[in-house]
Automatic annotation (TrEMBL):
The gene is E2f8. It comes from the Eukaryota. SMART domains: E2F_TDP (SM01372). Keywords: Activator, Cell cycle, DNA-binding, Nucleus, Repressor, Transcription, Transcription regulation. Residues 99-168, 244-330 form the E2F/DP family winged-helix DNA-binding domain. InterPro entries: E2F, E2F_WHTH_DNA-bd_dom, WH-like_DNA-bd_sf, WH_DNA-bd_sf. GO terms for molecular function: DNA-binding transcription factor activity, RNA polymerase II-specific; RNA polymerase II cis-regulatory region sequence-specific DNA binding. This is Transcription factor E2F8. It comes from Cepphus grylle. Residues 461-470 have a biased composition (Pro residues). Residues 806-821 have a biased composition (Polar residues). Belongs to the E2F/DP family. The keyword Heme does not apply.
Length: 837
DNA sequence: TGATCCCGCCAACGT
DNA sequence: ACGTTGGCGGGATCA
């Protein structure tokens, strides 16, 4: 291959050159410029699209001509030479598209420019890959890259071969919510922590075995595939044309996004993301090449996400050095809001994998893109195959979706749902955008402003007013009042601070609206209490101060935090609040569900009416269920299913979420070493109670929480053998390490200087804990995993290498009871600073 | 150099 | 068989 490659490469090169040079032109001579510029320049939204489109046909023709030429090497070369001759060196150079000019990101911009962010449902926004490829002058392959990720966000859906439907951002917020939810269910947060921890250990730990061991455990812990997350309304289309292995890009993209949505500072390094993603489908296999490949893919995804302005590249500086990372700049994802309306009624039909079939079908039509080979009756296209092993289980055949689903109809439906909630903001955004995207960009660059926030994340925008009547119960304010992490959810405006320190500029994110100030709550951080204004003021504060603050933070944390709290703090509260609120709201609608909820408290968190988690990894929106109803399932049935599902899968996950300093988000200062230690406890074990009960995050912790967590911790440690039976470790995470050494460092140290020794010590500790936690804690009490076979592995997130899924997981097998098994400890985040750009 | 990531071979999948 | 998708990773660019 390689051999061939070289030669091919050259040919290719020349070809590309040619292509680039002669965009729409005729053969040789045409100066490249014209076209080149055209596409490249203004991405002004949709406007010039039309022009491009109109130009399409001719272009295509020219393209073909080009192709012919390219086939003939000599000609190509000649052409090239001609160009060179005609153009001076510089010019030639210019004409020669630099790599950047051919970047996927740029291409994506062009692509996006063709379609409106919020297309009217009426118009048919279909995309013909060939056309696009032609118009943009790229190989179709590249278009696939873009479309695949767009598909993962449900911004497009495949209609048929070579054809996609453009949905724009109408479904974005819902998609993100769904993804967030799944991410939470997958315990991505924990996984991230785990990885970080591992890295930490690696720093000074050479012991291969240990690493491997860890890796193994880690890898095993994940569930492998969660497939594509569907959205209500979108399902059909998505499913309509199956795609073959729904494995990668699409899914990878969703997972990647999930990572952002679940991490507290919404920053994800490629490395971590790659590891997590790898872990999912391939246990261990730290294979370097695989890792590399994953990274490559992530870059691809990141490029398009960047084009969508959902993320932006940043660098995270750690002790190690700078690491590429991306920061979420998209809309904040509100917990479940959306769902309220949609879901409501019904029921979800979740079912355990094994039995799922029936409900599956109903929903399935929408949902899945199952991979099964078999076709189902009506729509062969819908059917997807499940992977070999997994297939059995997961394979879900999708019922035929009615072939009927036409994009238009679907869109309407979707839009209908969406509209109420999101519409307003969306529209606003739209208008704004329309006015001047450029202006917007500029603004953004300058510094975040409320406007930006709005623009960037219309959907996310805190709903000032309760938009939809539909969700009466859901008070708009709900989140805030509850004290539920508003901070994290609310959009923040970054302010760039001239940082003295490293010369790196840091940004402090301020919430656009004063109201948000509330958010500051954060048990662990001193800073939190500070009003935004104060934060702002911080700019002037020198690093010292900052450091100090940091320290304090740490102290506080130590003093105050307890594992429980950690758990509770951010996510939990939110979730809970959501849940509760939702419940109330929904109640009428879904009594059944509530019942279910009662049954399993753990479920509460996850209980998002709108979505159901399939073992297979599919999310089924209630809406879909609704569809399912059509299919003929009774609500009861569904309900039953749902209950099952919830019981089985949803449980612990949400509860486990480790808390990181919410503030981080609010204040992004390098100095802040935010490293709350997180202890993963199974929610259940903790008795989700405190968390759940305490609607407010704030209140949370202090009292009740600590105990449970500490006990768990102790249990774990003891179990593992890290500490003698009699010994008790304080609940406080920090302290946990303490036994070995002083842990303060873990918690906080001035960004720049970590005490190396301490670090080492802590590392060691971690290592021990890790080991213990992983091998011991994880595996501990387990229930034998069910032989679900192939899939089982997939589904369990935190399965121990050994086998039983200890994790909080979603394993189908568990009786719903949660075990304490997981005693994973979180390593403090080591992120020291984030530099943008 | 390491970070990025373009490019296109070629294998699954459809049809 | 042939066209569509898209996994994958070599190796070119960029910083």
């Amino acid at each position: 291959r390689s051999v061939l490659k070289t030669p091919l490469k050259q040919a290719a090169t020349s070809h590309s050159v040619l292509t680039e040079l002669q965009p729409d032109c005729q053969p040789l001579t045409t100066p490249p410029k014209p076209k080149e510029t055209l596409p490249a320049d203004p991405w002004t939204p949709t406007s010039n699209l039309k022009m491009l489109i109109s130009a399409a046909s001719p272009e295509i023709r020219s393209r073909e001509q080009r192709k012919e030429l390219s086939d003939n090497p000599s000609e190509v070369l000649q052409a090239k030479h001609c160009l060179q001759e005609h153009l001076s060196g510089d010019e030639y150079e210019k004409s020669q598209p630099s790599r950047k000019e051919k970047s996927l990101g740029l291409l994506c911009h062009k692509f996006l420019a063709r379609y409106p962010d919020y297309p009217s449902t009426a118009e048919n926004n279909y995309i013909c890959l060939d056309e696009v490829a032609e118009e943009l002058n790229v190989e179709r392959r590249r278009i696939y890259d873009i479309v695949n990720v767009l598909e993962s966000l449900h911004m497009v859906s495949r209609l048929a071969k070579n054809r996609y439907t453009w949905h724009g951002r109408h479904n974005l917020s819902k998609t993100l919510q769904a993804l967030k939810k799944v991410g939470e269910e997958n315990k991505y947060t924990q996984q991230i922590q785990m990885i970080k921890k591992r890295e930490y250990e690696h720093e000074f730990d050479f012991d291969g075995e240990r690493n491997e061991e860890m890796a193994r455990s880690f890898g095993s812990s994940e569930h492998s595939e969660m497939s594509f997350v569907e959205l209500p309304g979108m399902e059909f289309r998505a499913a309509s044309v199956n795609s073959r292995k729904d494995k990668s890009l699409r899914v990878m993209s969703q997972k990647f996004v999930m990572l952002f949505l679940v991490s507290t500072p919404q920053i994800v390094s490629l490395e971590v993301a790659a590891k997590i993603l790898i872990g999912e489908d391939q246990l261990e296999d730290l294979d370097k090449s695989k890792f590399k490949t994953k990274i490559r893919r992530l870059y691809d995804i990141a490029n398009v996400l960047s084009s969508l302005e959902l993320i932006k590249k940043v660098h995270v500086t750690e002790e190690r050095g700078r690491k590429p990372a991306f920061k979420w700049t998209g809309p904040e994802v509100l917990p479940n809001i959306q769902g309220t309306k949609l879901e409501t009624t019904s029921t979800t039909s979740p079912r355990p994998i094994s039995e799922s079939i029936p409900s599956k079908e109903q929903c399935s039509k929408n949902l899945f893109p199952s991979r099964g080979k078999q076709n189902f009756t009506r729509h062969p296209s819908l059917i997807k195959l499940v992977k070999s092993i997994e297939n059995d289980r997961r394979k879900i055949q999708s019922a035929p979706t009615s072939p009927v689903k036409i994009s238009a109809s679907t869109d309407q439906n979707v839009s209908a749902f969406t509209s109420k909630m999101a519409q307003v903001p969306v529209i606003a955004k739209h208008q704004l955008e329309g006015q001047s995207k450029k202006a917007k960009e500029m603004k953004m660059k300058l510094s975040g402003s409320a406007l930006d926030c709005n623009l960037s994340s219309p959907e996310a925008v805190p709903k000032p007013q309760p938009p939809r009547p539909a969700a009466p119960a859901e008070q708009p304010a709900l989140p805030q009042p509850l004290g539920v992490c508003p901070p994290s959810h609310s959009p923040v405006s970054p302010v760039i601070l001239p940082q003295t320190h490293s010369g790196v500029s840091y940004a402090i994110y301020l919430h656009p609206s004063p109201a948000h100030t509330v958010t500051t709550y954060s048990p662990s951080f001193m800073l939190q209490p500070l009003p935004r204004a104060n934060l702002t003021g911080m700019k002037s504060i020198n690093s010292k101060v900052v450091n100090k603050i940091t320290t304090e933070e740490g102290d506080n944390q130590i003093a105050t935090d307890d594992p429980t709290k950690c758990l509770t703090a951010k996510e939990r509260p939110n979730i809970k609040s959501e849940t509760s609120s939702q419940r109330c709201l929904k109640r009428s609608q879904a009594l059944q569900e509530s019942n279910l909820i009662k049954r399993c408290r753990s479920d509460e968190e996850s209980l998002d009416t709108s979505l159901t988690f399939f073992p297979s990894g599919y999310l089924i929106p209630l809406t879909q269920c609704t569809h399912g109803n059509k299919a003929g399932f009774s609500d009861e049935e569904k309900a039953g299913i749902c209950s099952l599902q919830h019981t089985t899968y949803s449980s612990p996950i949400a509860g486990v979420i480790p808390m990181t300093a919410p503030e981080l988000k609010a204040v992004n200062i390098p100095a802040f070493h935010i490293t709350p230690l997180n202890i993963m406890l199974s929610p259940t074990s903790i008795a989700a109670a405190p968390v759940l009960s305490g609607s407010s995050l704030n209140s949370s912790n202090t009292s009740s929480a600590p105990n449970p967590s500490s006990s768990v911790l102790n249990f774990t440690l003891q179990h593992v053998g890290l500490i003698p039976t009699g010994v008790q470790v304080p609940a406080n995470p920090v302290l946990q390490h303490v036994p070995v050494s002083s842990q303060p460092e873990n918690v906080s140290h001035s960004s720049e200087n970590l005490n190396l020794q301490e670090e080492k010590v802590s590392k060691n500790i971690w290592r021990l804990l890790d080991r213990a936690g992983l091998s011991g804690g994880y595996s501990a009490p387990c229930v034998p995993k069910e032989p679900q076979g192939p899939q089982a592995a997939t589904e369990n997130f935190f399965r121990t290498p050994g086998g039983p899924n200890t994790g909080p997981s979603l394993s189908a097998n568990s009786d719903g009871t949660n075990r304490i098994s997981q005693g994973a400890l979180y390593i403090p985040q080591r992120k020291l600073e984030v530099s943008e750009d």
